[in-house]
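Contributing new complexes? Match this layout with 4'-deoxy-4'-aminopyridoxal-5'-phosphate.
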Amino acid sequence: MALTNLQVRDLETVLHPYTNQATIRDTGTLVLERAKGIYVYDVDGKPYIEGMAGLWCTALGYGNEELAETAYEQMKKLSFTHLFGGKSHDPAIELAEKLKEKAPVPISKVFFVCSGSEANDSQIKMVWYMNNALGRPQKKKIISRLRAYHGVTIASASLTGLPANHTDFDLPISGILHTSCPHYYRFGLEGETEEEFASRCAQDLEDMILREGPDTVAAFIAEPVMGAGGVIVPPKGYFEKIMAVCRRYDVYMIADEVICGFGRLGEWFGSSVLGYKPDAISVAKALTSAYMPVGAVMIPEEMYQATIIESKKTGTFGHGFTYSGHPVGAAVALKTLEIYERDRIIEKAAAKAPQFQAHLQALADHPLVGEARGVGLVGALEMVAHKPTKKAFEAKAGLGAYATAIAQEEGLIIRNLGDSLAICPPLIITPEEIDDLFDRVARTLDRTLDKAKAEGLL
Ligand code: PMP
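Output block (do not edit by hand):
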């Protein structure tokens, strides 16, 4: 199909993030114009169910007047001031208070950022800073996991455990290591129970810590449910075993709640759902339902005390962004949290989860689907070439990307993570809309199956 004028101008000017720069020249981009509720509309007025909540973030959907008005009012009142060197403002103070109140573990202070990457980058710097302050400068290595996604800045991309974020970027940087991915369907051994698999993952972590030397390992970071790595739900008991290892070797634990935070898994924080009790937490995305780019690093008292110790020695704590705690972002975040509480958004999302997960599990019977997995209002369908052996399609067949394009024709935006189709709608989706969404997913799978058969891929 010929590209429209807007698509041509787009390709001539915009370098698209996280995009196959070669294929996009043929397919062009989907140019969106407006949105309301769970629907986004392209420039021709065609509606799509936003089945990915943008990038796992638009929890309250689109066109929320209250959030728009909050931003407008704050821009008029105090459009900007910063938090550097002794300045502050009411929205940041109130937001920090609210986050502390909601946190699933004791939190002492909140450091504001503008994205998930900045949050995780800051986590690394905070850990290094703390261990310098505490007089153990050799304890600096950070352990992440294969298939994790923690962002794309140099340090957070190093935490990420996906080849696309490392290859050609000369990453990961030294001192960042990746332990095993807790995906039982893919990495569980023949005859191994989920529990045994969880124990093996914990053993892998312990072996890595011992190999590196516990005195050199500072922290472990994990998403409660891995998002961009394929919506990977860890086996039962996984975090309990992992936490025991971390505690044994005095390894600080960080939860990356950038996707799971604020109701995605059915509770305020995904860690609570998975039984993970971290020391520090990163949040972003649904913190503002993506109405403003805001993230936060939530730290415990011990780490805060370290900043005081170190400041006494060296002066200024030399970390902070111009827009750390931007007043408009903070006001919008605060209003978002108020709406979650007032409208019981998270309880209602939890109540819709059984319907969502039942739809997902029903599709496990589809001839293309090897595994259907999820928690709360997030899930994925992993397409395989041969169900009994779990044989994957060759990457060059591009079946995941094909399915995403078909979904788009069906008026549904989903995202393929390899051949896993991720589904993560706004939390405000209604039960009727959930049925509609999954009808479109089913039609997408049927049409993708037709293609796989026609091309002899099965
Ligand atoms: N952590 C997780 C778990 C994420 O899913 C993401 C983004 N998808 C990030 C960190 C990075 O966030 P950002 O893109 O806002 O930098």
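Reviewers usually confirm one structural detail per submission. For this one: The domain at 65-342 is CATH 3.40.640.10 (Aspartate Aminotransferase; domain 2).
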